[in-house]
Amino acid sequence: MKDINKDDLNIDLKYLLSAIINNRRFLYLISILYFIFFGVYFFLQKVKFDGRFLMFIPSIKDELVIDDFNKTEISTIKKIYNKCFFSYTTSDIYFLLKSYEENLKERSIINLHLPRSSNIIIGSFSSYSREETLETLNNASSEHINYLKSISIDCIKNNFDNKGGKIDSLISKDNIPIPANIIFKPEITEINASNLRDEFFIFLFLLNALGSVILIIKERVQGNLYNIDEFKKLIKYQLIGNLYGKNSKLNYELIKNFLKTKNKDLTKSRLILITDTKKTKLAGKLKNKIFRDVKAKDFLFINNINSLYEIINTNDSDENFIIIFVSGTITAKNLKIFSDTLLLKDEKILGWCFFDSYLYSRFT
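^ that's the sequence the OP posted. Answer follows.
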């Protein structure tokens, strides 16, 4: 199995970051378009209001234990009620109310939820109106209580020896026990518009990630070179050194010292920036970054073979050239063509310098 070279991993990471940095305007563009699109979407998006109420289902068995412990006198109606609902569980009440909701036609159906091992039923509802949500939940909670009360009344009547209408007079006092209590009245619990914030950042991240992948694929297809070792393999001339952004004096001294070693006149030497890009502003920005002291006429920008051939053939025989290459701005194929063209005037080319746009990318 082939060992993974740490340097190769660093080069690949650097390559990927360079591809993104050099094309970051594309990411800016899709981000701006996304902001506009999401802004329109947010403006058109209706806000949803979520609400709920909680219904507690007491246990008849537990109530009997408490009444017995407190020696509470139990009325006849309460005794009958206990008998009616003694075997009922919270699940039974839940399914009763759920069936009631499913057969409704007069109002919107609410959602009922019974948490596991709980004696609390949750009623919930969502709508695009705060008033509609609260009104629906209030009506539902009242209807559920009245529905359970009607079941309790029917059971008590069926199990009571009704003589002289006594049971009807008791029932009219509205003291019929029921197996449920509303312990949390209907209220708004959440406004769903706030969830758009999370969606916004998630989709923004995914969109930029997709954009980065597209840029990396684009760079791979184009075959742009980023690593200095890749340039060394295709350039036959001497590497003078690396250039550094915002270090004009240091870069200028590098060129001067090199020319001294070659016994060449500084005034007879010119710099040529060779790239594939058609951005004419690149040369000016790069010059201000790394060669502030060099005159504009001595700093040439070349992006096609014909211009390069014309320059190296029409200038004075005493003139010399130093070539500058910038990472991520030229493909291997075109670098080979430029390099072969330079060989036609081999005696005029003194060497080349390398500028790493990954470390100093603000000039682009």
